[in-house]
Design goal:
Blueprint: H1 3-13, H2 16-19, E1 23-26, E2 31-36, E3 44-47, E4 50-55, E5 58-65, H3 68-71, E6 79-81, E7 84-85, E8 88-89, H4 92-106, E9 117-121, H5 127-140, E10 145-150, H6 151-158, E11 164-169, E12 174-180, E13 183-184, E14 190-192, H7 196-211, E15 221-225, E16 231-235, H8 243-261, E17 277-280, E18 286-289, H9 292-295, H10 316-326, H11 329-336, E19 339-342, H12 351-362, E20 371-373, H13 377-381, H14 383-392, E21 402-403
Helix pairs in contact: 6-14, 7-8, 10-11, 10-12
Length: 405
């Protein structure tokens, strides 16, 4: 039965309280996941950025566009605004329209849903972030109650564990967080501003060097097909396109390029030099890749700074081991044998093999290193949301909940 059919049955059958025990939202820098508790995967998976178009007659009036289907439609002067970065709200108004769009347009719920709401929060959070979140859900969305759970803890729940080392590598940040009995060990947590966007930026520099110009975004290309099925590409200029929208559209092409052709080499000394692939750009041009598709991801496992600074990024494998070594001595063995890997950036082919190899090289002798990666990309990408869907669906569980007054 599809989600919409279930919703109609809930509405007309008066079965809200029996079927919907809560809503789960996982805020991410690149995408946001949302849906009903108890489901296997989120029903909503949309960009966290929103389109904003000002009224030319009244700049104080703005129209917001949420979701792929509306953002991908180019409009003159439409800006792209980040609502979430690093799991924290950076634009409160944009975040409100993002969540309201999830509830109303995608989940077909009232604009102010009267259900408990669980939201993920970063492993490291600030009081300001929680205050913004509380104001948003109670004052603007008017939910009756909500609770927050740290993302590493939810990833642990999804793997069926309460103690593990969670490595979460997303678009903007990578976190190595030890979790013990359902609590994040804050003093042992490692965080660096490196992730999928870092790989995309290196890929952008490589592509623009090859092309000697920026990528042509899809909205500037029109394609015609003749009777012999031959395609003709024509570039059209739109001078009133907002610069941030053009940057966003180019980034989507680079993101697809990264997910399609980029890989992580298990051993950088053995990168195949004669392996060649091609990527077709939106304007029909073909861009060949050789070992460069391995080189752009090397930033994830190599140091970005020189010198003895202990806080410098030395590679994701060092992040994991450093976080484990900061934990209590009696926990280290268990953490090293329970490394849960999640986040969209870890879906790069070869990432798990490289991580396993590097950890075995730097781990203590005779130590057992075990990486727990979900069998399907869907589970690894949505692990945090799935972990949140589990506790909310069990009404007998008592969670630390904040209620509206």
């Amino acid at each position: 039965m599809c989600i919409r059919d279930r919703y109609q049955r809930r509405v007309h059958g008066g079965m809200y309280s029996e079927e919907i025990t809560g809503l789960v939202i996982d805020l991410g820098s690149e995408t946001t996941r949302g849906g009903y508790s108890g489901e296997d995967v989120p029903q909503v998976y949309i960009p966290s950025s929103v389109g904003v178009l000002e009224d030319p007659d009244n700049p104080m009036r703005k129209r917001y566009y949420v979701g792929d289907s509306t953002i991908l439609v180019r409009r003159d002067h439409m800006d792209i605004v980040e609502s979430i970065r690093g799991g924290a709200i950076v634009d409160k108004e944009a975040a409100f329209h993002l969540l309201q769009g999830i509830f109303v347009d995608h989940l077909r719920l009232p604009s102010k849903p009267q259900y408990p709401l669980l939201m993920s929060e970063p492993g490291k959070h600030s009081q300001e972030h929680r205050q913004r979140l509380g104001e948003l859900v109670f004052e603007q969305l008017e939910v009756p109650s909500f609770f927050t759970v740290k993302s590493p803890v939810l990833a642990c729940f999804a793997s069926g564990r309460s103690t593990a080392l969670v490595l979460d590598s997303g678009a903007t940040t990578t976190i190595a967080a030890p979790v013990h009995d359902g609590y994040v060990l804050q003093k042992s947590l490692n965080k660096h501003d490196i992730g999928g966007d870092t790989v995309i930026e290196r890929l952008r520099a490589h592509v623009e060097k090859r092309l000697e110009k920026p990528i042509v975004p899809p909205y500037e290309v029109t394609v015609s097909v003749d009777s012999n099925m031959n395609r003709t590409y024509e570039t059209v200029s739109y001078p009133h396109t907002h610069p941030r929208y053009a940057t966003y559209a180019r980034k989507l092409v680079l993101k697809d390029m990264k997910e399609t052709i980029c890989k992580v080499a298990e051993n950088p000394a053995e990168i195949p030099r004669d392996e060649k692939v091609e990527y077709v750009l939106p304007d029909g041009k073909t861009l060949p890749f050789d070992d460069s598709r391995y080189q752009v991801s090397e930033c994830l496992f190599t140091s970005t700074m020189e010198g003895p600074d202990p806080a410098a990024f030395k590679g994701i494998h060092h992040m994991v081991l450093d976080a484990i070594n900061k934990a209590d001595l009696d926990l280290r063995k268990e953490l090293l044998s329970s490394i849960v890997v999640t986040g969209g950036n870890t879906l790069l082919p070869g990432f798990i093999d490289r991580l396993q190899r590097k950890l075995c090289e730097i781990a203590p002798q005779n130590a057992k290193v075990k990486i727990i990666s979900y069998p399907t990309p869907i589970e690894r990408k949505f692990a945090t949301w799935i972990g949140g869907s589990i506790p909310v669906s069990y009404t007998h569980l008592t969670l630390p909940t904040i209620y509206s007054v």
